[in-house]
Amino acid sequence: MNDKKQQTKWVLVVLCCIVYSVTNLYEHFNLWFLMLLAIVAGTLIHYLVDFIFILINKFQALNQNNSI
Q1: Residue ranges per domain, the chain?
Q2: Other beta carbons less than 10 A from residue 40's beta carbon
Q3: Rg of the chain's alpha carbons, rounded to an integer?
Q4: Which residues have C-beta within 8 Å of that of residue 53, sequence separation ≥ 6?
Q5: Is the pTM of the predicted complex or chain greater than 0.85?
Q6: Which residues cross the membrane (predicted)?
């Protein structure tokens, strides 16, 4: 399960990098603001992926208990 979490996090980070480069954010914002945005986005990705995988595990456990 940890491999899937890491893969999901990497995909989201790559998508953030693509959005960053396609929208030319570096031309419109200060470097400090972009660093703060990267920290917030990274933290959000980390906790959001963990939360989603916890929900998936609970849902799978619930389905296994109901099928018995």
Answers
A1: 2-66
A2: 10
A3: 17
A4: 1, 4, 5, 8
A5: no
A6: 31-56
